[in-house]
Specification:
Rossmann fold, about 210 residues, 10 helices, 2 domains, 5-stranded parallel beta sheet, elongated
Length: about 210
């Protein structure tokens, strides 16, 4: 039986190229092509393809949002991500969501075909440079978290993350169900332990340790 594909990309030229590429191969059948995330989800639900070739950046629901929805629905379709470039956090989330194939659009068309065949066979095909950078980031983030855990309490680490995301004292007190006065006491203790003077220095610390 042919490998049944759904193709999703918001650029018609790319979609045409992908469809023509796979139609030249006797072991593939394109069952649907989509230009946005919602169409993609509908096509996967309707056709239950073997493999979804998914552009990571699309209008509306992007590729990662589609992946999260497919994971929530426990869809069995394997996914190959297609991208002009891959950011480290995108790679990490895609791996956590079960993606087994990642291909850069700059690669030769035959590489896309090989990737889809590998993924359909239960193997992995990952863009080595992007994945390598992402795993390096993950290791440094985990090292930063371990270091912070030897200095700060879990509540203090949580508050560092909130400060780094731009939350003010009132927002932090609401989320943590504590008074603003207690927030200020926690922040004072955090500053003292980390030897920083203010929020800006705290944010720089969090970024240097990959806590955000």
């Amino acid at each position: 039986m042919p490998i049944r594909l759904v193709l999703a990309d918001d650029h018609p030229i790319v979609l045409d190229g992908l469809e023509n590429l796979f139609r030249l191969e006797s072991d593939f059948r394109v069952v649907a092509r989509c230009v946005n995330g919602e169409e993609c989800l509908e096509a996967v639900r309707r056709f239950q393809p073997d493999v979804l070739v998914l552009d990571i950046r699309m209008p509306g629901k992007d590729g990662l949002a589609v992946l999260r929805e497919l994971r929530r629905e426990q869809q069995p379709t394997q996914v190959v991500l297609l991208a002009a470039a891959l950011e480290e956090d995108e790679v990490l989330e895609a791996l956590r969501l079960g993606v087994r194939g990642m291909v850069l659009k700059e690669l030769a068309p035959k590489m896309v075909v090989q990737c889809v065949r590998k993924v359909h066979a239960g193997e992995q095909w990952l863009e080595k440079q992007a994945v390598g950078r992402a795993l390096d980031t993950l290791l440094r983030r985990e090292a930063g978290e371990r270091e912070a855990a030897t200095i700060l309490t879990p509540r203090e680490i949580e508050m560092v993350g909130m400060v780094a995301r731009g939350l003010r004292n009132k927002e932090m007190s609401d989320r943590l169900a504590i008074s603003e006065g207690t927030v200020k006491i926690h922040l004072h203790n955090i500053y003292r332990k980390l030897k920083v003077e203010n929020r800006v220095e705290l944010i720089l610390y969090a970024q240097s340790k990959r806590l955000v």
